[in-house]
Request: fold
Amino acid sequence: MEKYSIIKLLSDQNRYNIFIKLLEYDGLCISEIEGLLGLKQANVSKHMRQFKELGIVDFERQKNMIKYKVKDSFLNDNIDLIKYLMMWMAK
Reply:
């Protein structure tokens, strides 16, 4: 995965906030992300599609909902970049 694609994805404030929430919790569904961040369902779904397309998240169907979480392999492969982006976005 290209580092540029990750930086571009996470440079959007809403996607960055979604990413941080996914790191904080062990799996979130769209409605939980909506509630935590005050975003609309359509926007969260659009952002999650982008995360899936880049292979950043895993998802698991639990009855009638889908829980998303950041892939361990993504974290392991990109930990330095993630730390840098978290420090930069905190400024």
In short: The CA atoms of residues 1 and 54 lie 7 Å apart. Strands lie at 57-62, 65-70.
